[in-house]
Amino acid sequence: MTSRRPDNFDGLGYRGREDPAFSGGYSGRSFNNSSSVDLQNWVTTPPDIPGSRNLHFDDRTPPFEAAPAAPGTQDTLPTAPPSEQLNRFAGFGIGLASLFTENVLAHPCIVFRRQCQVNYHARCYHLSPLTAVSVMYNVTKSQGPKALWKGMGSTFVVQGVTLGTEGIISECTPLPRELSHKWNPKQVIGHLVLKGLTYVVAMPFYSASLIETVQSEIIRDNPGILECVKEGVGRVMGMGIPHSKRLLPLWGLMLPTVLHGVLHYVVSSTVQKLVLFLLRRRSPAKQPEDGSETVQTMLDAYFPELMASFVASLCADVLLYPLETVMHRLHIQGTRTIIDNTDLGFEVLPINTQYEGIRDCVNVIRREEGALGFYKGFGSIVVQYSLHAAVLQITKVIYSTLLQNA
């Protein structure tokens, strides 16, 4: 091991040099200094390297002592107040609860709603949430709780495909993914074109996910989480499970799919911005005088956005419910899908429709099922958003109580 001592190290002159880096504010010891009797019983050494201590006889290195703290500096380290940490945790918790309710807890309502929409045999339209809950209970009782959570993995896959496709298209084209505050009509058109192209790419995977969602648990196998990707690619390539001649081509499904997706996005975005503007105008955020965050500032920061998103999604689903019914019937036609009997919940029914397109589907539903035929299963959407609103309110009350008691 190479020595770290300087070449001219003599043990005496080195310790006696006037170097503030090593003297530490104390006088060095030297035998040539007549005032050495006044020196204390220790020497100053170079940086504490093992083996570099050159102590004289009866000399001892003083023990390490922490430097005294400056007056008035004790217990003044900046630490985040507990209320701030609770506020951050509250915002994360409220958002997580909303996400869990929208994608997991409400999935049985989505399953039953889609089954009602594609069931042209149904005599009970389930416009009331009471009848919807009753049949959902019968399905769970006869097939198990798993029957109402089928296809949940494929819905996440479709969301991932949609987000990935949107990102790739926005990076490879000049189409804007987000609109700035100073938008112009050209940017809006380009943004909507991006959304439309994204829905076109995700359309075959959405169709496969729809089949997994409405297929009866009695006759279906246990598909893997990526089964909808395989089915979607097979739908594009014309391979996979054989379909009947009534299966509509993908280009025939493009118009209702893109129209529903773009209109849903436009309605939900407009309503969300309007509701958020009204909420913030009604109760503007107030900064406390002492600079600390309070319960009210937490609610003003997190809850209005969640409430605006909730109202926007509700308005878009209600307004576009008839178009969604038509779109789902066109997607499911010719796929040889067998669904649960939504009248009782104990039997299964095949889907054998013969629609020629979106116009023919609208005319047949209006003629054979009436105007309310477009709203089959509407009671489930009432249950879904009632459950979502209840979870948001309960979460708000819980975190408000925790922050007030903190």
Fold and architecture overview:
The chain has 406 residues and is an all-alpha fold. 57% of the residues lie in helices and 1% in strands. It has a single domain (83-280, 294-404), classed as Alpha/alpha barrel (Mitochondrial carrier fold). Strands 1-2 form a two-stranded antiparallel sheet. The longest helix is centred in the middle third of the chain and has 33 residues, at 250-282. The protein starts with 12 loop residues before the first helix and ends with a helix. 27% of the residues are buried. It comes from Salmo salar (Atlantic salmon). Solcar repeats lie at residues 300-402. Residues 73-83 have a biased composition (Polar residues).
List the helices and strands and how they pair.
Elements: H1 13-16, H2 20-23, H3 82-105, H4 107-118, H5 129-143, H6 152-172, H7 185-214, H8 227-237, H9 250-282, H10 295-319, H11 321-332, E1 338-340, E2 348-350, H12 358-368, H13 378-405
Antiparallel strand pairs: 1-2
Briefly say what this structure is.
By secondary structure, the chain is mostly helical. The protein is 57% helix and 1% strand. Keywords: Membrane, Mitochondrion, Mitochondrion outer membrane, Repeat, Transmembrane, Transmembrane helix, Transport.
Provide keyphrases for this structure.
406 residues, mainly alpha, two-stranded antiparallel ribbon
